[in-house]
Amino acid sequence: MSDFLILLHTAVAIVATVLLILVVRIEPLIALLAGSIYLGLATGLGFQGTTEAIASGFGDIMSSIGLLIVFGVLLGSLLSATGALRKLTEALLRVFGAERSPYVFSTAMSSVFPAIYTDVLLVLTAPLGRSIAPRIRRDGTAAMGAALILGSELGLVLVVPGAGALAVAGLLNVPLGQMLLFGLLVTVPTALVTTFLYKQALKAGLWSADKDELAAAETSTDDSDAAVKQPAKLPSLGVSLLPLVVAIVLIAIGGIAKVAGVTSGPLAFFGNPLIALFIGVVGAYLLAWRSLSREQAGNALGSGLRECGGILIITGVGGSLGAVITETGLEDILAGYFSSNALSPLILTWIIAAVLHVCIGSTSVAAITAGSILAPVVGSIDTAPLLIALAAGSGALFAVHVNSNFFWMFQRLLNLSTRGTLKTCTLVTMLASVVSLGLVLALSLVV
Q1: ∠ CA 256-111-72, rounded to 5°
Q2: How far is residue 98 from each of residues 140, 216, 404, measured CA to CA in Å?
Q3: DSSP reduced 3-state for 444
Q4: CA 119, CA 223: separation in Å to the nearest integer?
Q5: Tens digits of per-residue pLDDT, 256-284?
Q6: CA-to-CA distance for 111 and 107, rounded, in angstroms?
Q7: In angstroms, rounded to a whole number, what is the distance separating the alpha carbons of residues 26 and 436?
Q8: What is the rounded CA–CA span in Å between residue 347 and residue 432?
Q9: Neighbouring-strand partners of residue 213
Q10: Which whole-number Å values give the CA distances from 188 to 101, 118, 327, 432, in the listed order?
Q11: pTM of the predicted protein model
């Protein structure tokens, strides 16, 4: 089959997948799998070749990162149960004050709590953000809303152990130690710069409280407030964060050991991300069991398992799509279109992820799908897989809008009109996506 037809069928498969999700409203799992089947059959892999590629792609990605995703989500669920996030944000507020709180929330949430999935993180922090907003001199609701969006979304796809970051790193074979370090190098400046730019827009008159905010009585937030009520006997902040800190430190040590050529022994074993995250989960579980009760600790684990089920399936099917693309020979075709300049594949990755997010409405699905599309060609181009992973995460942030459940949940929790939600949720994620892309391109000059 000619290169042109392979490219054409690949484009049809991807566009059809997006349209199935956006227009027909089919679940991403079904749409991605349908796209994989079409691509395999249309490019001549045959019935057996297509099914083998789909099965092997799913199995390969699950064997490499399935447990990592599970442990990352479980750790976040247990940290939520022990009140670690609430204690941290309250402590930071006491130190930095209300006016600096948007910067504090956006950086702390995205860099320290990426393991807590976006919806859970937003529900936990929204009551805190609403209580701080009136203390900010101007447009406090908009400023705190922007901070909560950044804190919830950035860590998900750029910082380990965020579920999206774990999945994309696994698809592209990026060491998790590298993903953690360089993800933080992109995330923290992105949070600070985006918050600053957004506050400048507020000063220029972007926000109108009368039109962009709803009266508190128009929407109920009792459920979200209840979500952050904690029993009296929770551990201190330092103890609450200890399981997460231990896991991150072990992953970082493992990354350093690998660079130093240490591939066996205690350092390599305990620094393995699988072992490090497992230790973090066990520590968080024992802490929740001791601080709350065995039943509540079990409920937190059960909640985490329910959350990670969909992520695992989407990640696995993303691996299936990548395997089918590999079998079509697209790797060699696309490699010929990329120059040795690192900017072209990075921008292409960003565009693919951004378009997918705008169409699909899921940050993690967009990042994972972009990663699965680019995974087959990363070995054939002169661009570090780490940079491709970061570019996919950056693009996947672009424009959370009305086709996202996160958009509507954010509107309800912050008491905003649709117009106000567009001015916060959508505009801020657009800014963050562009700012983070600039940082990734800057990293490409030295990585």
Answers
A1: 75
A2: 9, 21, 30
A3: coil
A4: 13
A5: 776 677 777 888 888 887 888 899 889 98
A6: 6
A7: 31
A8: 15
A9: 416
A10: 15, 17, 38, 11
A11: 0.68
pLDDT bin (cut points 50, 70, 90) of residue 335 is low
From CA 376, how far away is CA 292, in angstroms rounded?
Answer: 46
One-letter amino acid for residue 240 of the chain: S
Minimum mean pLDDT range among 119-123, 289-293, 299-303, 391-395: 119-123
Q: How far apart are CA 248 and CA 177, in angstroms?
A: 9
In sequence order, what are the residues at sequence separation of 6 or more whose Cβ sits closer than 8 angstroms to the Cβ of residue 11?
A: none
> Are residues 361 and 28 in contact, defined by beta-carbon separation less than 8 angstroms?
no
The residue with tokens 């010929």 is 336
Which residues have C-beta within 8 Å of that of residue 369, sequence separation ≥ 6?
A: 17, 32, 318, 321, 353, 356, 360
Question: What token pair was written down for 256?
Answer: 């350093």
Is the alpha carbon torsion for 143, 144, 150, 153 positive or negative?
A: negative
354-363 as b/e, with b when 16 or more CB fall inside 10 Å? Answer: bbbbbbbbbb
- Concatenating the DSSP letter of every residue in 218-273 gives GS--HHHHHHT---TTPPPHHHHHHHHHHHHHHHHHHHHHHHTT--SSHHHHHTSH
| Cβ 47 vs Cβ 38: under 8 Å | no
Number of other CB atoms surrounding residue 185 within 10 Å: 17
Query: Coil, helix or strand for 382?
Result: coil
Alpha carbons 97 and 102: distance in angstroms, whole number: 10
Which residues, 6 or more positions from 223, have their beta carbon under 8 angstroms from its beta carbon?
none
CA 53/CA 49 separation, integer angstroms: 6
- DSSP per residue over 42-63, as a string? HTT-HHHHHHHHHHHHHHHHHH
The residue type of 196 is F
CB distance 413 to 131 below 8 Å: no
Cis previous bond, 345, omega within 30: no
Report pLDDT for 227. Answer: 38
40: Cα separation from own chain's centroid: 29
| Whether 81 contacts 287, CB under 8 Å | no
Task: Compute, in degrees rounded to 10, the torsion defined by CA atoms 320, 325, 327, 328.
Answer: 150
- The answer to whether 255 and 181 have CB atoms below 8 angstroms apart is yes
Total residue count of the chain as it appears in this document:
447
Best CA proximity match to 397, nearest among 358, 424, 359:
358
